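Just scan my protein:

. . .
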Amino acid sequence: MAVTENQIIKRKSGGQLRGVVAKNENLYGGTLCFRDSNGHATGDDDGGSNPFLGVVDAQIDNSAGSAGGMSGDVWGEATVVLLPLGSATQADVGKKIYASDNYTTSLTSSSKTYIGTVSEFESTTHVWVLLDCQLP
């Protein structure tokens, strides 16, 4: 389920980039973001059409602004983050992981965006994910 507040996200390593935020968009810290057709950061994966950009470092509230009116830090390629995954098991390590919104992940690809690979099992509800961002 998509969240509507900042999330505390644990991270092990990785790179950082600047994301230019889409019009009327409020990106919450610790959530996933995607690149829309105009190249702006958004929390909407658009049914798997928007490529994965990374994890928002801190909230970027451009809800009253124009496209590109704000930018912020996004943790991207080669970052390892702890994300929710329902019914996770040790056998999921090495599998591709997908997102359907800014905080919902799955091992199935249907109408979802690829975000990386499960790198470590944490619990039945969370896994460490090696992000694989699709940069322009």
About this structure: The chain has a mean pLDDT of 92. DSSP finds no helices and 13 strands in the chain.
